[in-house]
Amino acid sequence: MKIILASASTTRTKLLTEAKIPHDVEVSGVDEESETFAQLIPAKMVLALSAAKAAAVAQTHVGEELLVIGADSTLEFQGMSMAKPQTAEIAISWWRNYVGKSGLLHTGQTVIDVARNRTVSALSTTEITFAQVDDEEIRSYIATQEPLQLAGGASLDGIGAPYISHVSGDPTGVLGLSMNDLRILFEELGHPWRSLRAS
């Protein structure tokens, strides 16, 4: 069964590759900043975006025997959805607020079985706690530019890993693709994980 990941995220691709799930990547082109999505609460927003991304790619493969994975993540902090910081100044401001506090990392996932026109979705929510770091450390991290590409300006892998002190929940969900949820979604569509894994 062919699998397409409707995401440009290198971390999501890496998770699938390391789990021996062969796949192609096709970016959906969905406008993530659209008011349609922005007006939703964070958990519903990531589910809606994951579904929209998967559907956009599936529409270009009507009738084909393939599975399309859509995913989206956001950090909910103090009730607000923290998208990608647009500037270093915004990222610095966010990180000053994050220090020693916790937020919820929501990852929405949708899988479409294109040939059978079936869609399933799941939400992974993980609490992450930010480390106690000083202003100089924050500025040094933001200067790497890494946070500007990340939902909430933070991640559990890469340069920012030392700045997350605690994770409670799904560890791969924090990285943008809950592998456990994905396995369950595939099984709901009649495709056991073992049948999709490369030997």
Question: Could you characterize what this model shows?
Answer:
This protein has one domain: Alpha-Beta Complex (Maf protein), CATH 3.90.950.10. Helix 4 packs antiparallel against helix 5 (135-143). It is an alpha/beta fold and 199 residues long. The model has no long low-confidence stretch (mean pLDDT 94). The chain has eight helices and seven strands, in the order βαβααββαββαβααα. 34% of the residues lie in helices and 26% in strands. Strands 1, 2, 3, 4, 5, 6 and 7 form a seven-stranded mixed sheet that branches.
What is the terminal separation in angstroms?
Answer: 14 Å
Shape: elongated
User: Strand pairing plus helix content: what structural class?
Assistant: alpha/beta
Number of helices: 8
Query: At the third CATH level, what is the topology name?
Result: Maf protein
Give the biggest sheet: 7 strands, mixed
Mean pLDDT: 94
Give the tally of β-strands.
7
Give the H and E element order: EHEHHEEHEEHEHHH
Helix proportion range:
25-40%
Low-confidence stretches: none
Estimated radius of gyration: 17 Å
CATH architecture: Alpha-Beta Complex
The oligomerization state is single chain
